[in-house]
Amino acid sequence: MQLTDLFNLSLVGRSAVTALEYDDAEGRIASLTFGEIDQRSDRVARLLDAQGFVRGDRLAIFLANRVEFIDLLLACLKLGVIIVPINILYREREIAHIVSDAEPKAVVSTQESRSWFPDGTEFIDVEEIRVAAERGLDGPSVRLALDGDTPAAIVYTSGTTGRAKGAVLTHNNFASNAINLLTCWRITREDRYLAVLPLFHVHGLGNGLMTWLIGGTLMRLVERFDIRRAPQLCEEFQPTLFFGVPTVYVRMLEMSDEVACRIGPRVRLFVSGSAPLPAQVLTAFREKFGHTILERYGMSETLMNISNPYEGERRPGSVGYPLPGVSVRIVDGSGSDVGDETVGELLVRGPNLFSGYWRRADATAEAFLPGGWFRTGDLAERSADGYYTLRGRRTDLIISGGFNIYPREIEDLLLEQPGVLDAVVCGHPDERRGEVPVAYLVTDRPIDATSLEDSCRQALASFKVPRAFIRVEALPRNAMGKVQKNLLPTIQP
Ligand code: MLC
């Protein structure tokens, strides 16, 4: 089955019901029914069709959370066009790579963001999408017969080689993930979902948008999570369902007890993921809002794998147990299964697993073990009663505010800067963002932090810009030449 057939439970079955509230261009709250959303995406699909988009073409989306993102997603799914959502914080270097790798037929963006893209990029202005959605051609509904294995999206995830790889996610991947969450988190049409996470990542896209469209809940879409706006939003919209990354929950602890007491009782479920939720945040949040946040574990390549239970113990520090249909193993360095309470690499298998990295047969082959087991790169252990706890990573990933950072990508850029002879980037603990990147450099001249920062900011997303540039005599390397990060001087960025 293709995703739009599942969405029809809401788009057709609840066509007259209000589906979405969002801020329009004038800053007023606008709303749409499921039927209107269906019609808008049909009109956008006709526009794309008229522009020559055919099944298998890629369309890149470089947009903040706004209704046209949804119009485009649905239009593309209907046509079998593959969406390539791009993190809007990405800059020249990251964008150039994605565009050359995915070869989208066009990129939908605002006028202002075009300058970040390489010369020769084909653009569709988001205004054209808005006009098509609101006033485009009407006609019979658009539906191509697609197989569930048809690619729906290519989601770029930072690679250990320094260049991001595109994880190809199919209709079936998103469907199995959403059906799991609808069931296990008991999401129903009675829910009111406050969507603050970016739609360009699988947390906001695969978990948020897909459960909304299948479940028929009411969604309030906001451009981004902003702690200054959050209390008023929660009080006005009265969500029952909320998805956040740990940084969001850390910031919500800044709300007054009075506001927390008003918001808490109306919410049914707070879910956290994309980065480890510190146990003390879970505890402080429970005291303040009266809820035990439900922590779960997923990845762009796999969507959701493991979740704490809706009923039963939500164990602090643990991500719970595998979701239905998802098989999990923990193995040692030789690939043998380890026993309970022993740390090893986490492997997963199931209908949620991506079909491979876009045009990277080598990377795809490396990511899987015989039998179709995907190597997550995360270290984990299982308790005797079946709860899984993450214990770090096999690779050097830094997670800041829920965004993934591979140090290698920043190191490569730093090594291109004048006077930089050697460079390493580490994650430094940060109370709010979990971790922030810090650079250690060997240079042949005094460090000019401002110019290094400017170069990083021009090429990379703001969350990847090192918070400090520290000059060291030499990088401590082991016999294999690998930098021993634990031997670097500790600093206060
Ligand atoms: C952050 N910034 C944004 C932004 N998010 N700018 C525009 N749109 C967004 N969505 C920028 C700000 O401009 C600022 O840049 C910096 O980040 C910090 O902003 P802040 O206002 O201080 O935000 P803060 O309160 O720290 O909260 C940040 C945040 C953001 C939590 C809202 O980090 C965020 O939205 N994270 C979600 C990431 C996510 O969805 N990950 C899912 C990956 S999927 P500057 O230049 O001033 O520093 C995945 C799989 C899985 O991992 O299992 O889910």
What CATH calls the topology of the largest domain is Rossmann fold
Mean pLDDT: 95
Number of strands: 26
Bound molecules: malonyl-coenzyme A
For the terminal residues, how far apart are their CA atoms? 51 Å
| Rg calculated over all Cα atoms | 23 Å
| CATH top level class name of the largest domain | Alpha Beta
- Domains, number: 3
Poorly predicted runs of 5 or more residues: none
Residue share in β-strands: 25-35%
CATH architecture of the largest domain: 3-Layer(aba) Sandwich
Structural class: alpha/beta
Based on CA inertia axes, which overall geometry fits? Answer: globular
Helix content: 25-40%
In words, what does this structure look like?
The strands form 6 sheets. The chain has a 9-stranded mixed sheet. 30% of the residues lie in helices and 26% in strands. The mean pLDDT is 95. The protein starts with a helix and ends in a 22-residue tail after the last strand. It has 14 helices and 26 strands. α1 packs across α7 and α6 packs across α7. It is globular and about 70 Å long. It has 493 residues and is of the alpha/beta class. A hairpin with a 3-residue loop joins β24 (420-430) and β25 (434-443). It has 3 domains: 3-172, 3-Layer(aba) Sandwich (Rossmann fold); 225-354 and 363-393, ANL, N-terminal domain (Rossmann fold), CATH 3.40.50; 397-487, GMP Synthetase, Chain A, domain 3 (2-Layer Sandwich), CATH 3.30.300. The chain binds malonyl-coenzyme A. Malonyl-coenzyme A is lined by residues 64, 88-89, 197-198, 201-204, 224-225, 227, 245, 247-248, 251, 273-274, 298-300, 401-403, 432-433, 462-463.
